[in-house]
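Recap from last week: sequence in, structure out.
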Amino acid sequence: MKRLLTTALQIAISLALLWWIFHDPDKRARMATALRHADLWWLLPGLGCLGGVVLLQTQRWYLLLRAVDLPIGWLRCLRLLLVGMFFNLFLLGATGGDVVKIFYAMREAGRDKAGAFLSIAFDRVIGLLALALVSVVVVAVQWHELARSPIAMGLVATIGFILGASVAVVIVAAMVAILRLENRLPQRLPLRKAIVDLAVATQRYAKAPGTLLAAFLLSIPAHLLLFTTFYFAARALMAKLSLMNILSVMPIVNVMTSLPISFSGVGAREKLFEQLLGDLHGTSPELATLIGMGGYLIIVVWGLVGGLVYLTYRPSDGQTATLQEMSAATREAAGHPAP
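Predicted structure tokens:
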């Protein structure tokens, strides 16, 4: 019930934001004019950029699986990642892309189901650390430009707090792993379960530092390619924005839309683009909104590819499962992650 209420609230917020963005008929007319003059062929390199993100993320997860001897091949990793993208975008309420991805990964992992669960958790952590680094570099390079907008600076402070707190949790988990304290943490410690899970994963991956470094390095171009996807959306709309102009706002947009505020970031993404590109680069509201929508459209296209993969996907054991069964099995694994 709590999950359904949360999803309903996210959808309501998305609808409210979309009404706020599109309720002005003059703005809608200007958007229609911008679309008529758009060169949509520029979306193709954007699709290619996001395809590169998918390949880099597949390789990153594959390396982590190999490091702990989990027998999941590269092509199956790719298919599971695409399936996860589809459910992240289109499944309302009951579960999400990670649940489906974890479930099938556990099916393929044989006896080491906890290892499959932890590989996905650690994959997320490495992506987070790389995002924090990319964000720090982009903000540092664009500091003087961002400082011209009080709203941008407020959002920079917000994502700094979010990323800083997340990295702090990872550091605490690493210390817990080094000192072997995972069974001694107070039961009421905030985020205790997440810290213990990460500590167990850290202990497993500590024997493969080269793999961890390679996975981290793969994450940096993956983030940059994702950001560049929105640059090609801007090019399609004839916006006079450089790649660096787009990069200057993307860490803010990426972090803020990852929060469970609106459904899949819909509404929040477009409003952030409108506010930031308008304040920093004088981009018109209708054009900034369309840039956010264009980049998201590219993500949706790849999500639909994931849907096609899901329709043809068959686990190695040949057994199928309902979404309810997937969710239950994943919750069970999450409750007992240690090998």
